[in-house]
Amino acid sequence: xxxxxxxxxxxxxxxxxxxxxxxxxxxxxxxxxxxxxxxxxxxxxxxxxxxxxxxxxxxxxxxxxxxxxxxxxxxxxxxxxxxxxxxxxxxxxxxxxxxxxxxxxxxxxxxxxxxxxxxxxxxxxxxxxxxxxxxxxxxxxxxxxxxxxxxxxxxxxxxxxxxxxxxxxxxxxxxxxxxxxxxxxxxxxxxxxxxxxxxxxxxxxxxxxxxxxxxxxxxxxxxxxxxxxxxxxxxxxxxxxxxxxxxxxxxxxxxxxxxxxxxxxxxxxxxxxxxxxxxxxxxxxxxxxxxxxxxxxxxxxxxxxxxxxxxxxxxxxxxxxxxxxxxxxxxxxxxxxxxxxxxxxxxxxxxxxxxxxxxxxxxxxxxxxxxxxxxxxxxxxxxxxxxxxxxxxxxxxxxxxx
Length: 402
Ligand SMILES: Nc1ncnc2c1ncn2[C@@H]1O[C@H](COP(=O)(O)OP(=O)(O)OP(=O)(O)O)[C@@H](O)[C@H]1O
Ligand SMILES: [Mg+2]
Prior knowledge:
The chain is built from 11 helices and 13 strands.
């Protein structure tokens, strides 16, 4: 069956059904909705009616979006699958310039595949496979099999956007490094104090590239595991102990303090402990980094762990999947500058950073994207609640088993 097109199967069934039949008019069938008077099946000269009617009866049993067109490319019949999937857009699909030019060039026994994008009422990518089949007495029709490829199209666009963004983000520090190398070779060749200064900046840019690559690799690993549900059990107390250890060097001597408040005897939940620790580290790192704004003011970071239903969570929901089940909620709060409401739904997008903050210069914009993918893998939930001037709360919820 390898290499067989869906429209091969359709054409095969159609030919079987049409074989040896006489002519009969197709009466009382639902016609495709199309404003083009030229496409009105009532006006189209009927080809071998009996063969056609028999063919259509069989085609209507095939669970695919199928159209039967006359030799001029006008719709003679739209199968139930086509109606269900494309409804009123069928006329627009057949009239699409790409489809029309493929139909004009279609000879007997030929087939053609056309990809097209419909922009109204919503963007939709459609792949049409056409095949002209002989139905006897010198007549032929065109069978069209339609596929909705919008999802693949969106994934493909996201992939290309991602590559463009990632290369843009890497290009900026790379351009700075190249510039400084030129300066060190030329104007600053005999200026040791300037050399030291430039080398310091260069080390910073190299570290930025390193961090970006580390984040990209982490994101790609998380995405690769996203469709495999985690098999382990996560003990909240053990997670908090690791988070306390791993954040100690970040907090040491800085303006931020971490206050942990954990309910007693919290049950374990299904998940990947390393990933849950990663989520909390990313959130606490953000609270440390952005909590003090441009100043060095003291930041109080809270980490509160409770057993809760997702309905108890407040704030903007970012990609919720959790139902009404019970689970474990980790809330990371800070008393920093807060985030304007309009940014909240977009924070988990890759490379999204809030304009005009320290984040534009220091962050990669990937930390919360990683958080979101990990939470999705766990069927969990993330809400963000922020008040400008008061602070921000990120709450992560993981379901308990059952
Ligand atoms: N606690 C917070 N307070 C204020 N703004 C925040 C806070 N957490 C996140 N943000 C904003 O959300 C943006 C996205 O955060 P995210 O963690 O995804 O990326 P990043 O911190 O810029 O990069 P990375 O985490 O990879 O270093 C940040 O750039 C920042 O503008
Ligand atoms: Mg971050």
